[in-house]
Amino acid sequence: MQITYRKGFELTSEMFMVDKVRALEKELLKLPQADIVTEHLFMDGVYERKITIPPWTVLTGAEHKSNYRVRLEKGIIAVNTDDGVKVLTAPCEFSAKAGMQRAGRVFEDEVVWVDIYDNPDNCTDMAVLEDRLYVVPECGLADSRTEAQKAQIAYRAFLYGLNLEDKEVEEVVNISFGIQNISDDICVSVASKMQTKCYLTC
Fold first, then answer.
1. pLDDT tens-digit map of 145-178
2. Cα(98)–Cα(118) distance, rounded to whole angstroms?
3. Distance between CA atoms of 141 and 130, rounded to whole angstroms?
């Protein structure tokens, strides 16, 4: 296992890291989503969640509710750990504690990352396991997002591509998905920006 500390990534507290990961997650949801493949593996008393991450992907995970182990099977990834941000090279394995939410950056090769959990009752119901193991974000976990969640994420990315502000995006998404009424000033602003974008791209 090779672990490299990168200058400038030292962190002073876990709370600081949690805030940074959540801020990054919010920004990543403004962009088209990476095609991350998830496999669910079950053995007696163990559940493994394996993800294959494309090169050059930046990603965040869900906060974990229990202690677990991580096995990096392939690739190189910069990721926050209990000891700060490190660059990990496969193969390696380490323990991780509850409450951790990770952010990672993959380099030129795809990464295969496996989270390993105790599963004493051999549960195979993904809804039960996800509720047991993760603080599931509003946008859902990537492989189990509903079609509505996927549509909202893609629509937000499209709106941010029009250079709309956060407030404008939220109001347009909310009205588009029937959550609340949209204000007239937001309608005018969005229409103007969409028209400008159309002129620039046509």
1. 667 766 766 776 677 677 777 777 677 766 666 6
2. 13
3. 9
Q: Cα 58 from chain centroid?
A: 8
| Pair type for strands 134-135 and 92-96 | unpaired
Give the pLDDT confidence score for residue 190 in this predicted structure. 53
As beta bridge partners, residue 134 has: 64
Question: Which domains are assigned to the chain?
Answer: 2-139 (2.60.120.10), 148-201 (no CATH)
| Whole-angstrom distance, CA of residue 23 vs CA of residue 39 | 27
What tokens were used for 111? 């990464």
Q: How far apart are CA 56 and CA 34, in angstroms?
A: 10
Bond prior to 91 in cis (omega within 30° of 0): yes
**CA distance linking residue 2 with residue 9, whole number of Å:** 17
Q: Nearest 5°: phi and psi at 62?
A: -85, 155
Give the SS3 label for residue 111.
strand
C-alpha angle with apex 83: 78 to 86, nearest 5 degrees?
A: 15
pTM of the predicted protein model: 0.67
A 10 A CB-CB count for 60 gives 20
- Residue 190 forms beta bridges with which residues? none
